[in-house]
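sorry for the late reply, my laptop died twice this morning and i had to redo everyting from scratch. anyway the thing you sent over, i finally got around to it. pasting the sequence first so we're on the same page, its 231 residues, then the predicted structure underneath. double check i copied it right bc i was rushing
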Amino acid sequence: MHHATLAAQDISKKFVQGTQEITVLNHINTVFVHNKSYAITGISGSGKSTLMHILASLETPTSGTMLFNNNALQTLSVSQREQFLNKSIGLVFQAPHLLKELSVIENIIVPGLISGRTRNDCKQKAIALLTKIELLHKKDSKIGELSGGQQQRVAIARALFNEPAFLIADEPTGNLDLATGKHIIDLLIACQKEWGMGIIVSSHDEYVAEKMDEVYELREGTLHPCSQKIK
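ok and here's the structure:
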């Protein structure tokens, strides 16, 4: 993970609606580095989710290149992309996207099993993560027995399982009340400081902008650095 970088190089994204071509992202150039936290703010519909999906290589830009450690993500094969997503990128969305039929600990170990680690090894790692997110007492619970905030904490633990270079969180507090949302952001910051990964969080939440090292606003398809930040 040393000196990992995720770079958007002249990224644009256009959609066609009927006869209209709509530009959502317009020539974005930004480099994100590990060991730093970033907030991406912007009004609803400004393209934050599209940008986050492109950063994570879940979506392809219309033009431009995404680079991870100077390697173009567009050139990856399907299996290489899956490996990249499983090992180098942790993803957290507004909805937790947990597997309801599995227990809490079983949800968390999924990335480890995919990458070929033994179940026993995975469980030991999951117990450490559950302790970190203060949910060890819920390890055998079904997902439906958890509150929204607890489910989001499980989603974060799952995203962190393979110690990714970057954690990309798209509106992670969007479905939560204010106090629970703050708890989630504080947890993300604590994990980032402990493990030295980069975190990129898109949000409407002012608390997110206050807590991150750098803040960008996505406006008219372009990322604008915010020079003034409340600390």
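Residues 178-195 form the longest helix (18 residues).
thats about all i looked at so far, will dig more tmrw
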